[in-house]
Amino acid sequence: MATNGTNGNGKKRTETAARIIKALKETNGLLTMAAARSGIGYRTVCRYVAEYPSVKEAAQDAKEAMLDYAEGKLYSKIKDGDNTAIIFYLKTQGKARGYIERQDIGNPEGESFKVEHDAKPKLLAELARFAARTGKTEGDTEANGKGS
């Protein structure tokens, strides 16, 4: 429970938050490393991130800065002609222009099928059809002792 200093611990909490923020900046937003660097327990760091907007913002800003740094390095590699960097960039950022790998996965009869990322609705429908054919309902399995 965050009291934000109303119980007489305000100065201590403010100092702790400042130590965590400093450590987050030094460790690129990595919570475990920030905890070790600041001498504050990991769970306490997590609690401060959850309870204090300024600490949460510092963690996010540090991670964004590292992401920007990594992107800058990637761009440098691309400009230097690094084929791996170029391919990676096109696969991740050039999808709208057709730079995407597709896989044809087939069954033994040679028929291919499309792999969908969100197959849950189709899977649930298929399970319902199976249950209707077999007469089993949800939860009827041998594992729970209700099976046939």
Summary tags:
mainly alpha, 6 helices, about 150 residues, two-stranded antiparallel ribbon, about 60% helix
What would you note in describing this structure?
By secondary structure, the chain is mainly alpha-helical. It has a domain at 10-96. Helices cover 59% and strands 3% of the residues. The protein is built from six helices and two strands, in the order αααααββα. The chain has helices spanning 10-26, 31-38, 42-51, 53-79, 83-93, 120-134; strands at residues 105-106, 112-113. The protein has a two-stranded antiparallel sheet with strand order 1-2. A hairpin with a 5-residue loop joins strand 1 and strand 2. Helix 1 runs parallel beside helix 4 (53-79). The chain is flat, with a radius of gyration of 26 Å. It starts with 9 loop residues before the first helix and ends in a 14-residue tail after the last helix.
